[in-house]
Specification:
25% of the residues lie in helices and 13% in strands. The protein is built from 6 helices and 12 strands. The strands form 4 sheets. Strands 8-3-6-11-12 form a 5-stranded mixed β-sheet. It has a 3-stranded mixed β-sheet with strand order 7-9-10, with helices on one face. The protein starts with 6 loop residues before the first strand and ends in an 11-residue tail after the last helix.
Length: 329
């Protein structure tokens, strides 16, 4: 007896024919793959933008916490902390406000009477603090140097990097809020707290003098600029591909170090140069945020300042008592 495969029709009768199954053709498969590729191309930038927005928000929150600590410190002592203490190489403003950031235990590990590189300060120096690093930027490439820092106090718009001695005796003094060996009072911010920067951010250097990172690294220039525009021009003209022009100054760690300040001489995300033979510098802020950097003002407000901001209002933002009348629009 022969068995026949049958299918049942919609009318309820049986038929001996089997309906064929139809698959994708090669052309159809390629079209589907192309459509998926287009959708992925549209989706990925949106996902990246959403992630960067979240990172930028966290970065701004970190800055706000620093600003709150600075204001609480001022409320308790009627002045802001020094931008850099006198004990060489000098402690940072952030290290002095740790108790106002719920980091009192970390503060207690620091012996401010000793140099920050002293073995007695090693435990504190090597401790990373999550709120000190902007998630949009790179991680600390030299953790053995110390915990990283992305947030720098405003030194002002004067060329002098340290103090006004020697060749800098007649130069304008640093006119920001965080300067070396001096505590600034709120009353000294005569330009107004809404018009004066308190803190901003800077990308950590790459930690490798054999690699050129144009925005992150600090480059050495042997010149002696006497005004701001000359300093900016000399820095822009420097051949940074010549590795001998890389300066072994690691900006980004440890957070204990008072060197971590920035200047309002050149606009954000431009090159940093040290004219360190005479103790002058051009050290703008920098970030990986699209088209700008976060700037925390002395009144606690915060905004993203565009890279293409005009130079005069940018410099005015850095002075606490310059008397400038400018618009930031």
């Amino acid at each position: 007896m022969v068995t026949q495969n049958r299918t049942r029709s919609l009318a309820g009768t049986w038929s001996g024919a089997v309906a064929p199954r139809r698959g994708f053709t090669l052309v159809e498969l390629l079209v589907v793959i192309a459509i998926i590729g287009v959708l992925m191309g549209l989706l990925l930038p949106a996902v990246q933008m959403a992630r960067e927005a979240a990172r930028r928000t966290q970065c701004q929150n970190n800055l706000r916490q620093i600003g709150l600590a600075m204001h609480n410190y001022h409320g308790a002592r009627q002045r802001f902390p020094m931008g850099q203490t006198d004990v060489s190489p000098g402690y940072s403003a952030i290290s002095q406000v740790l108790p106002y950031m719920e980091q009192g235990n970390l503060h207690d590990l620091i012996d401010f009477r000793q140099p920050l590189m002293s073995p007695v300060n090693e435990a504190a120096r090597l401790t990373p603090v999550a709120g000190f690093m902007c998630p949009s930027g790179p991680t600390n490439p030299l953790p053995q140097t110390g915990g990283g820092i992305s947030y720098f106090g405003n030194k002002g718009s004067a060329l002098v990097w340290g103090t006004n001695v020697g060749p800098n005796a007649t130069m304008p003094e640093p006119n920001g809020i965080f300067v070396r060996g001096r505590q600034v009072r709120m009353a000294e911010i005569t330009d107004g707290t809404t018009h004066t920067a308190l803190f901003s951010e800077r990308l950590p250097a790459d930690g490798n003098n054999g690699v050129v990172s144009p925005i992150q690294d600090v480059f050495f220039h042997p010149g002696s600029p006497t005004d701001l525009d000359q300093a900016v021009d000399l820095c822009a003209q420097l051949d940074i591909q010549n590795l001998s022009n890389q300066f072994p100054l690691f900006m980004g760690a440890p957070w204990l170090n008072g060197q971590h300040t920035y200047q309002h001489i050149d606009t954000p995300n431009r090159r940093s140069c040290g004219f360190f033979a005479i103790g002058r510098a051009v050290m703008p802020p920098s970030s990986h945020h699209p088209q700008g950097v976060n700037v925390l003002m002395a009144d606690g407000s915060l905004s993203l300042v565009a890279d293409d901001i005009s130079i005069l209002p940018w410099r005015a933002m850095g002075t606490r008592n310059g008397g400038e009348v400018v618009s930031y629009e």
